[in-house]
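Consider the tokenized backbone below.
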């Protein structure tokens, strides 16, 4: 009886292996496809800003999107960010960010992803990081954080430059 069970187990494994390999390959292809879509939409998003295309830019963000800018006071929901950005887009001069490095990570269900990117900008190298969510079948920016990068050897100098601003903002925020 044990021999029959072992033979059955062996044969079922032999016949299941090709199926499991196909599933793994299909999953890998789905992940690559999702990453390509995310990259494409991030590129479209940055391009829309560079071309000052307000509608295209904001259509690539979710309705509950958050944008956190380089200034400590810049933490906007979508409507606030639109209001802040509109004059730049209307003047035909939004911003131009070109990714020079990007990493994308996917949640198992492939409906949520997070990323980080180094950007070539008018401020020098910046880092963007964020969350992409699948919204009606399309990958959109749900949360984005833009940071100016500072070489470690310049941190003391930058800290001194922004000390007064930081102290005032810290005081104001603590009083609230």
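A designed sequence for it:
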């Amino acid at each position: 009886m044990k021999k029959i069970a072992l033979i059955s187990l062996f044969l079922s494994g032999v016949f299941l292996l090709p199926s499991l390999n196909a599933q793994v390959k299909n999953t890998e292809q789905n992940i690559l496809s999702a990453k390509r879509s995310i990259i494409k939409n991030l590129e479209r998003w940055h391009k829309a800003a560079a071309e000052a295309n307000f509608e295209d830019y904001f259509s690539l963000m979710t309705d509950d999107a958050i944008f956190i800018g380089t200034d400590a006071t810049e933490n906007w929901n979508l409507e606030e960010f639109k209001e802040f950005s509109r004059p730049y887009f209307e003047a035909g001069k939004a911003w131009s960010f070109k990714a020079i490095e990007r990493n994308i990570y996917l949640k198992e269900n492939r409906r949520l992803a997070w990323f980080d990117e180094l950007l070539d900008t008018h401020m020098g190298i910046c880092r963007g990081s964020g969350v992409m969510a699948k919204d009606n079948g399309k990958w959109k920016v749900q949360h984005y954080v833009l940071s100016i990068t500072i070489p470690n050897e310049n941190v003391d100098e930058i800290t001194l430059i922004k000390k007064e601003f930081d102290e005032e903002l810290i005081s104001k925020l603590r009083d609230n």
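The radius of gyration is 23 Å.
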